[in-house]
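Comment thread on ticket #2218

A.B. wrote:
> Attaching the input chain for the structure job we discussed in standup.
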Amino acid sequence: MKIDGCEFPDDLLYDPDGLVWARPLTSGEVEVGITSIYAAIAGRIAKVSGRPAGVEYAKGSALGFLESGKYFGPIRTPVRGVLREVNPKVLAKPRTMTEALYGDGWVARVRPSNLADDRGSLLALPAATELLAKQIAAFRVRCFAAFPDFEMFEIGVECAAVLVKLNELLVQVPIGEVVHLVTDDPTSPIEMVRWSDETGQPVIDERREGSLFHFLVRKVS
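C.D. wrote:
> Ran it. Output below, let me know if you need it in another format.
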């Protein structure tokens, strides 16, 4: 389900702050990760650290911490239990956390002490829709499909000229990097489709906010 542009899978449980999710596994463990709200608050995550495994942590305790250029904060467990492991993928490559929030970007696995009791305070969709929408508004977050590595704000410039600049930038950036392009040219939605078809570079997200058009482009070649 998408709520104001932010993604929330229907099969997960969410803490009342809308910052972390829980996925009960068939093994009896619970997988824990951060939501698109928390990812948008933190921004481009540069470092992830974990607490010691094999220790029982109370519900709401930090299992680890995330750090970006603008933010440092805890990743709190939504259930009480023993920390079994912190995802080595996000420790080695923090970007995994935001590129695959609800998949490979999980943060930790916990062996719950009393999941039945803890589930009572966790929220499921669609019942959590209103609360999550309020949290998005309260934190004033904007969710996109990926966090940009480069920003282009081209206001008052014709789209044809903007695309020339975009091509020049993409020549310089590594494959896999994402560019966030903002323009007020009303022809840009059509022009971006044409440009993507011609260059083979995908537009992975787009949105209109008032008179501004936002596009995320990922360099693939």
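A.B. wrote:
> Thanks. Noting for the ticket: Residues 2-139 form a domain with the OB fold (Dihydrolipoamide Acetyltransferase, E2P) fold (CATH 2.40.50.100).
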